[in-house]
Amino acid sequence: MTDLTIRSATSADNADVARLCWAYRDLLLERSHAFTHVLASYLDQPAYRDLIQDLPRIHARPTGDILLAPVGSEVVGCAMYYPLATPGVTEIKRVYVDTNIRGSGAGRALVEATIAAARKDGYSRMVLDTITPLTQAIALYEQMGFAPCDPFYEVDPTHARYLRFYDYPL
After folding, report:
1. pTM for this model (two decimals)
2. Residue 110 falls within a domain, yes or no?
3. First vs last Cα of the chain: how many Å apart?
4. Which of 21, 97, 114, 126 could join 77 in a cystine, given CB atoms 3.0 to 4.6 angstroms apart?
5. Quick check: is 1 in a domain?
6. Residue-range definition of the domain harbouring residue 43
């Protein structure tokens, strides 16, 4: 994909970030039909709306960022990272690419750019969690060198079988 670029979001991008995050939520709910009850607690609509509004603060520079993948004038993907309580560790969140662009390398480009930005920010380790039905994302993370790891937060035991945790040394 020759006209794909990766750049940091600005306040002018808030509507695109929100649109992509809502699409990501919809994808999670669609793919988790066998355990929608589990995700419902994490993706409660009012709480998720509040989270989306707070993303610019949560992922603010200099300790995090929201990266966007525009193709021409259309923003088709996002990824973001922020610090965890453990020094040197960052979590990559909400890696999402519009359905019409999947398979083009945009997801890989977003993850690569997020890794590079986190490394430049001085992080030594990147972690992520995902749900088991996101098999394409899991395959991408593993191809890129992310390795399975123990959970980095306390997991409700009834939810554990639906989650996968990965880490990547920076």
Report:
1. 0.93
2. yes
3. 26
4. 97
5. no
6. 7-169
